[in-house]
Write a structure and sequence with these properties.
Length: 326
């Protein structure tokens, strides 16, 4: 065991989700790949008083360096406390592909892991999820599993077809695996190219309602929930970027979900778009600039401000904890 999450000042998601379900909001789970993104996420959550789950995929962890990730998370907690905030911060593995990856993350200070066995047959998904849950719980770490398949692309996760979660399976799955939260497929989609302009994307709130009846009070997770904001797509194009027109999940539908059993909503693509749009704009307006601080900070600020807006209008988690200030 290299590090334990409590020694890094991190929280697992158990109490976060209990409070969220009780008070009718969702905990934001934001992916990061570098220091500036961590700063933007923490600043947004501190200023709004929102709990936060810092997420890394296996690919992002490899990019950052697995030895560095625990200390970025520890620094994030220290940053929040220095701003006078008491928000809980979790470090979560997003889409863990196997037991070995989940085990390694737990031993490197993660407070929460996801085992994504959704590509397996049902019984194999149960077997792998249970194995991870038993090991994680022996270290006080919480576990998310997935039932159903989201279409789209996110790092190494690729699926062409969407398979809705079957409500009749969830009670058996949760009971037999012992996991702490469940990611479901009800119409959200991974990546920036979710739906085309003119489409009318809707999430299956009827499936969510049925699942909630079958496992009342159990924390539900939504992946692929970025809205693909037009303003950032337009900014990227304005300053030399190339990206196809696309739309994401409407905010009002996500807010309805967060008022029910959905305790965690994942956002990754929107943060990438905001961050990249800010960098492109800064470099286009200042072509002689070569100081990374001068073009990374605008990207960080765009991401921070957008996440503050999402916390207030979509997650509903503003003021759940003490607000701090920069």
């Amino acid at each position: 065991m290299k590090y334990h999450f409590k020694d890094l000042g991190l929280s697992n998601t158990k109490e976060m989700f209990e409070k969220a379900n009780k008070e009718g909001y969702s905990v934001p789970a934001f992916n990061f790949n570098n220091l500036e993104q961590v700063q933007g996420i923490i600043e947004a959550c501190v200023e709004t008083g929102s709990p936060v789950i810092l997420q890394v995929s296996k690919g992002a962890r490899n990019y950052i360096g697995k030895e560095m990730v625990p200390f970025l998370a520890q620094a994030a907690v220290a940053y929040a406390r220095a701003m006078g905030s008491d928000i809980p911060v979790a470090l979560h593995l997003d889409h863990g592909p196997d037991f070995a990856t989940c085990k390694d993350c737990i031993e490197y200070g993660f407070s929460s892991v996801m085992i994504d066995g959704s590509h397996h047959a049902y019984e194999e998904n149960i077997k792998e999820s249970k194995e991870v849950a038993e090991f994680a719980h022996s270290h006080g770490v919480t576990v998310e599993a997935e039932l159903g398949v989201l279409a789209g692309v996110e790092d190494d996760v690729v699926a062409d077809a969407h398979i809705y979660t079957q409500p009749e399976e969830v009670e058996d799955f949760v009971k037999r695996t012992g996991v702490d939260s469940l990611a479901i497929a009800i119409g959200t989609s991974h990546g920036a190219h979710k739906f085309k302009p003119g489409d009318n994307p809707k999430i299956r709130l009827d499936i969510l309602e049925e699942i909630e009846k079958r496992i009342p009070g159990f924390p539900i997770v939504l992946h692929g929930s970025s809205s693909v904001p037009k303003k950032f797509v337009d900014l990227m194009k304005q300053y030399g970027g190339e990206i196809a027109d696309a739309i994401g999940i409407p905010d009002e539908q996500l807010r309805l979900a967060s008022k029910s059993a959905v305790a965690k909503i994942n956002v990754d693509t929107d943060g990438r778009l905001a961050f990249t749009a800010g960098i492109r704009e800064a470099l286009a307006k200042n072509p002689k600039e070569f100081d990374p601080r001068k073009y990374l900070e605008p990207g960080k600020n765009y991401m921070r401000d957008f996440y503050m807006e999402k916390i207030k209008t979509v997650f509903g988690s503003e003021g759940a904890y003490k607000k701090g200030s920069k």
